Amino acid sequence: GAGVSQSPSNKVTEKGKDVELRCDPISGHTALYWYRQSLGQGLEFLIYFQGNSAPDKSGLPSDRFSAERTGGSVSTLTIQRTQQEDSAVYLCASSLSTGSGETQYFGPGTRLLVL
Amino acid sequence: SQKIEQNSEALNIQEGKTATLTCNYTNYSPAYLQWYRQDPGRGPVFLLLIRENEKEKRKERLKVTFDTTLKQSLFHITASQPADSATYLCALGSGYSTLTFGKGTMLLVSP
After folding, report:
1. CA distance A88 to chain B (A)
2. Which end of chain A is more exposed for a tag (fewer CB within 10 A), N or C?
3. Residue B44 is nearest to which of A59, A101, A106, comparing CB atoms?
């Protein structure tokens, strides 16, 4: 079946511009996660959604970052007024739920470069 | 604060040998630990889950141990193959919290 998809696969933008990254989770998965991975760094948790509950935004690095999930499916991560330090790979993952030990299925990521 | 340590240096081994990767953690009492494989330009792929009440888990050529006293997990690949070359990430979780990932260790298996 179809896995997690993300678009665009690559994005180059100028400092100060806004960008939107999209994630299509696996159908039926109620939990959706966003991570950021910088060169040589581990996965940094950003935000997660579980069903209709309020999202856990505890990992968002600044108020320039926001995310929404419409209809419990597709999610969009928005970065406003991008900075060079925002350059990274943004990974989305989904899981059946947030049950203990639930496997996360990752998309291929969006490579963001801020010039 | 929680800290997860994985060898930052790449592990180079010869085909057919057993690769052993280490994941150490501090200031954390995880209920479970997962190992993921990540290939260049791709997202991580789940390999194994081990819970705090389990000492060892096996799947084909993979074996994971979990020592909550030492706060350490070991990940073994037996009869390693060049196709096993990738970065391996450990991730810790408890209850219904999100996962905390280590930075990963790159494994290079030479023919």
Report:
1. 12
2. N
3. A106
Q: Give the 3-state secondary structure of B16-75.
A: CCCEEEEEEEECCCCCEEEEEEECCCCCCEEEEEEECCCCEEEECCEEEEEECCCCEEEE
Amino acid A16: pLDDT: 97
Which residue bears the tokens 């023919």?
B111
pLDDT tens per residue, range A5-56: 999 999 999 999 999 999 999 999 999 999 999 987 889 999 999 888 889 9
Decide if B43 and A108 are in contact by the 8 Å CB cutoff. yes
- pLDDT confidence of residue B96: 67
CA distance A47 to A83: 19
Residue A84 and residue A114: Cα distance in Å, rounded? Answer: 5
